[in-house]
């Protein structure tokens, strides 16, 4: 089974000495084969946060039968020593689909070709605009084209059960510290790659 890789969703924080500007608010993920196709394997993060647990309840060192519990030096006072508890990584609940220019099989006469697709999983709170920004920031500009080759993807992403939306251009996406983009079709068209049409009435949330 292919390994799943994780990427942080960044946010901007101000007046907070305990956080950096690109403090992540969550993560999104894809299979390692998807990351390999998009040349983003080296951008994945371990992202497994650990929490220090400090027990406060004393435990007896004598069992019910009278025998003694053998503990390490740090645990010998009857109260277990603090320990690291690994956090959980959600795969994400919002499926985002990208279409490549790589044809599946050989289409028959008069048949339209079908293309390989890739997918990411985003958390449920990620809006269309957050996803457009995150993908535009992560995916190399050279991997996105309006008429993709077999090693590129279309500049649109699809939501399972939803419509198609443009991926933000690399320069525009990386220039933003917050996951925000203009809402009008004309402004979205400017953020999209040349040759990409944005249709009014997308109903961007």
Task: Give a topology summary.
Layout lengths: L3 E7 L13 E8 H7 L11 E4 L29 E4 L7 E10 L11 E8 L5 H11 L14 E7 L4 E3 L3 H6 L9 H7 L14
Antiparallel strand pairs: 1-2, 3-4, 5-6, 5-7, 7-8
Question: Would you write up a description of this structure?
Answer:
With 205 residues, the protein is an alpha+beta fold. It contains 4 helices and 8 strands. The strands form 3 sheets. A 4-stranded antiparallel β-sheet has the order 6-5-7-8. The protein has a two-stranded antiparallel sheet with strand order 1-2. Strand 7 and strand 8 form a beta hairpin.
Please outline what is shown here:
This protein has 205 residues and is of the alpha+beta class. It has helices at residues 32-38, 128-138, 170-175, 185-191; strands spanning 4-10, 24-31, 50-53, 83-86, 94-103, 115-122, 153-159, 164-166.
How would you sum up the global shape? elongated
Total helices: the number is 4
How widely separated are the two ends? 35 Å
Strand line-up of the largest beta sheet: 6-5-7-8
- Rg from C-alpha positions? 24 Å
Q: Which structural class is indicated by helix and strand composition?
A: alpha+beta
Please give the largest β-sheet.
4 strands, antiparallel
The number of strands is 8
Question: Strand-and-helix sequence, N→C?
Answer: EEHEEEEHEEHH
- Sheet-strand content, in percent, reads 15-25%
Average pLDDT:
75
- Low-pLDDT runs: 177-183, 199-205
């Amino acid at each position: 089974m292919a390994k799943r890789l994780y990427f942080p969703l960044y946010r901007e924080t101000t007046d907070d000495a305990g956080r950096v500007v690109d403090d992540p608010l969550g993560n999104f993920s894809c299979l390692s084969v998807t990351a390999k196709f998009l040349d983003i394997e080296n951008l994945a993060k371990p992202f497994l946060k650990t929490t220090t647990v400090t027990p406060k309840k004393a435990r007896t060192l004598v069992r019910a039968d009278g025998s003694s519990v053998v503990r390490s030096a740090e645990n010998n006072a009857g109260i277990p020593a603090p320990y690291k508890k690994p956090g959980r990584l959600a795969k994400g609940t919002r499926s985002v689909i990208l279409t490549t220019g790589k044809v599946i099989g050989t289409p028959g006469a008069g048949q339209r070709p079908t293309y390989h697709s890739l997918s990411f999983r985003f958390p449920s709170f990620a809006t269309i605009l957050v996803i457009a920004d995150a993908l535009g920031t992560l995916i190399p500009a050279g991997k996105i084209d309006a008429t993709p080759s077999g090693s590129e993807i279309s500049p649109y992403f699809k939501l399972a059960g939803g419509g198609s939306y443009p991926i933000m251009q690399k320069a525009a996406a990386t220039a933003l510290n917050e996951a925000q983009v203009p809402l009008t079709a004309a402004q979205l068209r400017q953020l999209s790659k040349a040759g990409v049409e944005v249709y009014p009435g997308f109903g961007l949330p």
